[in-house]
Amino acid sequence: MxxxxxxxxxxxxxxxxxxxxxxxALFADKIYRIVPPEYKLNxxxxxxxxxxxxxxxxxxxxxxxxxxxxxxxxxFMNENQRKAAALSLIDDEETEYxxxxxxxxxVKLLKEVFYxxxxxxxxxxWLYAHPNTVNFYxxxxxxxxxxxxxxxxxxxxxxxxxxxxxxxxDGNLQDDYRPGEIYYEPSKEALISLMLPDIFPQNLLDVPPxxxxxxxxxxxxxxxxxxxxxxxxxxxxxxxxxxxxIETIINDEKAKVDAAAHEYKKSMDILKVVKFGGVLTTAxxxxxxxxxxxxxxxxxxxxxxxSSGLWAGVLTGIIEKRVSNNNNPYTYLxxxxxxxxxxxxxxxxxxxxxxxxxYNYTLYRGFEEFIND
Length: 373
Description:
Blueprint: E1 5-7, H1 18-27, E2 31-34, H2 45-50, E3 56-60, H3 63-80, E4 98-101, H4 107-110, E5 118-119, E6 126-129, H5 131-149, E7 152-155, H6 158-168, E8 189-201, H7 209-218, H8 220-239, H9 243-266, E9 276-287, H10 288-291, E10 305-306, E11 311-318, E12 331-335, H11 346-349, H12 355-372
Helix pairs in contact: 1-7, 3-5, 5-6, 6-12, 8-9
């Protein structure tokens, strides 16, 4: 797995993405995005400067992926719409449309799914369809392209992260965690949120693009060491089934992640960073039955393991065990600031507990509501 990422779902970096982009530039080796052929980007000078080395904002044409992704999306929706309430598309009364470039999908095939699709006469390259349908498809397309190119998916949006993770696991996520054989449909694996708090430098938009590029060149080793530590934890846990082994891995590997994160933050001295915040979140899987007996997870919904720089909590269960494949993409959720929008029940359920516990509960409820509500 490379340390390169795919930005989605829009073609251009929008104003609300700038802070995310500045931070992502400190982590990723390369940042790709989906750009239709002959599309002329229209972005401000500081974005163009950040992209000037050819490592950030690299365009990937969707043309060679559109037919296969369209067919896979159509099949996925037909098979999974009844599994998750969020996959229900817009009703016939909806009148709002947003545009999607025709190169990103096979139009004939997707008319079966984009049943309110319309094409405007003045520009044959753009199609208009319902926002939810377009967003689902663009997220699905991003997953497809990421998987084909061994890229990770990064976003700053919780809903996109939930949707992308659902697609990544082929719709096999349950609305809760069900270990053991006493359940009608027990989980084979549990989906765990791995959270690294206080990892993003604050007020990074004040740093000129040239300084970001200098940091990328000077501190590449620290960046690689940090991301590889996360990857090693993931790989070790994916191979383990015994609870004793899982507990040992958690204790050993989280110390390595802590150390790597500490060194990486120290390396930002050349940017004169003095304050860190936010949370970097990704998802990993652990054998469900074994996890149920791990001391590090005493309360499967509410519990978190804590160290100086690493937290984890259970999100949901996975019905079908997936074959480990190092080429599969991973989804990352980057909350740059510390001001989280918690689920309404988080503060009541976690009164007096650390904010990261409320944050994990919010992510868990995101999956539950995606499937049920």
